[in-house]
Design brief:
alpha+beta
Length: about 70
């Protein structure tokens, strides 16, 4: 079961002015969350729907500054 309703999402998202940002989803982070399987299943479904609508997908990963560059 997804945490989003695909049909409602299709009503809200307009592919000409939308992008899906997958932010900071990597093994070191995801492996420790309590609902890992549910989260990954929902994320895969969301990515699949975005692809089916030709919505661009941007993947990001937060990387801490090396200590010498921190303010």
């Amino acid at each position: 079961m997804s945490w989003f309703n695909v049909e409602e999402l299709k009503k809200l998202v307009k592919k000409n002015n939308s992008v899906l940002v997958v932010w900071d989803v990597h093994e070191a982070l995801v492996s420790s969350i309590f609902n890992k399987d549910e989260f990954l299943s929902s994320l895969k479904e969301l990515i699949s729907e975005a692809r089916s609508l030709n919505i661009p997908i941007v993947y990001t990963k937060i990387t801490p500054y090396p200590e010498k560059f921190q303010p």
